[in-house]
Design goal:
Elements: H1 2-40, H2 44-57, H3 62-75, H4 79-92, H5 97-109, H6 113-130, H7 135-148, H8 151-164, H9 169-181, H10 185-198, H11 202-214, H12 218-231, H13 236-248, H14 252-265, H15 270-296, H16 302-323, E1 335-338, H17 345-358, E2 367-370, H18 372-375, H19 382-394, E3 398-402, H20 413-428, E4 434-439, H21 441-449, H22 452-457, E5 461-463, H23 469-482, E6 486-487, H24 491-504, H25 512-531, H26 539-543, E7 544-545, H27 553-559
Length: 560
């Protein structure tokens, strides 16, 4: 009887245990289904909480473990926990291809290629048996074969993935990357094009652009990269790649813009900073070289050219030191030009304005010419306003004041006001204004000595020598070339004679470049007078300057 009671009690306990197990499984299933609903709606965090409860009630629920792992996979986090879940699920259900496939993908994401390939191989075999193969596993195995260098096997698997899902643009894209890797460029381009047709996203355009650039189709490459950027405006690599192509075709200004945009998106990329510095240096060098060529093309001025080249060299080195974080010398960039009228001072001032702009010393690079009438007013207080207005217009460039000593007349309070105001703004705008004062050497020196502020700010002198007779002839020839005139051989001696007389004259109206221009205008006028009455003018008549067109020095002097 006792035995019967015990057996009955044991049966009751067993029934209760079985009842609890069934209840727990029911609860596990309920939470699993709720979690599955959240999973399908992509609420992965909520789904994980529900799968956690499902697994608490039934640790053998392999699908809850699988789906929880899938949530981690989709979130892109906790890959190790996801693999542990799949280990448990596979132990419970070792023939489930989905479980094994997902674990293979997780190993792939963790760069554990051998484990990944083992699982993907196994899952493919199981899928084949069930006749329900997943295209994505072939794609993953293809990627694994690429990383292992087994390109033929990778190609076969890309083909299988495409056969199972011919509309997936990603499969064509990565197959194209494989072909590009092994040098099968035409096939790669076809794959990229199909990928773009399936889904015209930035990645497809970017890779086709990269390959077009590699094979020298730069126009196609730039079009593709521009479309890639439209689709991926926050992708620094797309800007960087397009910048590389612009640089390759010599469009360094667009290259610079793209490098700067890439740097905004990826400020930690040191290579981008180096590229920007190199291009800025190249642009600056080319620009300065172009302007220096225009200076070197001027006739004469050999000493001036040397002085300007020295200014450029010093400014370039200081700029480079500053960019590299080294101490740079703080010097005044204001200049004094001395020499007689017509020796090229204004022309060189314009060139220096451009050069300083390209060197980054001036923001604008223009030139404003001023004299006493532009700076000095007839009433107290008005002069400061006039000086301020002129300086504001010159800010960012060069203020060129010819015959600057005209500001410094004896007992001239207006001139003194102009000088003091000028000095104030030279200090206020010292980082973006260069002032050049010009005139006769002795008068300029007296002018600078008249005010300690002037003397301290102007300490670099460039002297403009008078042109020699030979140089004046060369200037005249240059004027002829510019205006499409031809000098006959017999005119050169007459030009030499008249320029010799000019250089010996004490009258500045005849000296130097200004005298050459005056003579040229007189010559072409005389030529016009000579040929105007001819009934049968030909091109040679219109072009040629002959001996009769050259006036004597006495005739030129009388016409002034």
């Amino acid at each position: 009887m006792i035995k019967g009671v015990l057996l009955k009690a044991a049966a009751n306990v067993k029934d209760k245990i079985l009842e609890k197990v069934r209840a727990d499984k029911d609860k596990s299933k309920k939470y699993y289904l709720e979690g599955l609903s959240q999973f399908e709606n992509k609420y992965y965090e909520t789904a994980i909480e529900l799968f956690n409860k499902s697994i608490e009630f039934d640790g053998s629920n392999s699908y809850a473990l699988y789906k929880r792992a899938y949530c981690y996979y989709n979130i892109g986090d906790n890959y190790d926990d996801a693999i542990l879940d799949l280990d448990r699920a596979i132990k419970i259900n070792p023939k489930n291809a989905d479980f094994i496939s997902l674990r293979g993908r997780l190993y792939y994401l963790k760069y554990e290629d051998k484990q990944a390939l083992h699982d993907i191989d196994k899952s493919i075999k199981l899928y084949k048996k069930s006749g329900n193969c997943d295209s994505y596993v072939y794609y993953i195995r293809a990627e694994l074969y690429v990383s292992l260098g087994e390109y033929s096997k990778a190609e076969n698997d890309y083909n299988m993935a495409i056969e199972l899902d011919p509309d997936c643009h990603k499969y064509y894209l990565n197959k194209g990357l494989l072909f590009a890797k092994v040098g099968r460029d035409d096939e790669a381009l076809k794959c990229f094009t199909i990928s773009i047709e399936k889904n015209p996203n930035g990645k497809g355009y970017m890779e086709r652009g990269r390959l077009n650039a590699k094979i020298g189709k730069f126009e196609h490459a730039l079009l593709d990269l521009s479309k890639a950027i439209m689709n991926m405006p926050e992708n620094s690599d797309a800007y960087k790649l397009r910048a590389n192509i612009y640089e390759e075709v010599g469009d360094i200004h667009n290259a610079l813009d793209d490098y700067k945009k890439a740097t905004e998106l990826d400020p930690d990329d040191k290579d981008l900073s180096d590229s920007i510095l190199n291009i800025e240096k190249e642009i600056m060098t080319k620009s300065v070289s172009r302007v220096m060529n225009s200076l070197n093309e001027l006739v004469g001025l050999s000493k001036v050219k040397e002085e300007v080249a020295s200014l450029i060299n010093f400014a370039t080195v200081q700029r480079e030191r500053q960019k590299r974080g080294l101490q740079s010398s703080k010097i005044s960039h204001h200049l004094v030009f001395t020499g007689r009228p017509g020796t090229g001072k204004t022309t060189v001032a314009r060139i220096i304005a451009e050069i300083y702009h390209h060197l980054g010393l001036l923001s604008g690079g223009h030139i404003v010419e001023a004299d006493r009438s532009m700076l000095v007013a007839g009433y107290i207080g008005q002069t400061a306003i006039k000086v301020k207005n002129v300086i504001e217009s010159a800010r960012g460039g060069v203020l060129f004041i010819d015959e600057a000593y005209s500001l410094n007349h004896e007992n001239d309070s207006y001139g003194e006001e102009a000088i003091e105001t000028l000095l104030k703004y030279m200090e206020d705008y010292r980082d973006d204004l260069v002032v050049i004062v010009a005139g006769y050497e002795d008068k300029i020196k007296d002018f600078l000595k008249s005010n300690p502020g002037l003397f301290s700010r102007f300490n670099k002198f460039i002297h403009f020598e008078d042109y020699s007779t030979t140089e004046m002839v060369e200037i005249f020839k240059h004027n002829c070339r510019q205006s499409k005139y031809i000098l006959s051989d017999c005119t050169i001696d007459d030009l030499m004679k008249i320029f010799t007389s000019m250089t010996n004259s004490i009258d500045d109206m005849f000296s130097n470049g200004r005298g050459v221009r005056n003579l040229f205008e007189k010559v072409v006028t005389r030529q016009a007078d000579r040929i105007a009455s001819k009934s049968n003018l030909n091109t040679e008549d219109l072009l040629t300057i002959i001996k009769e067109d050259i006036p004597s020095f006495d005739e030129l002097e009388l016409s002034i």
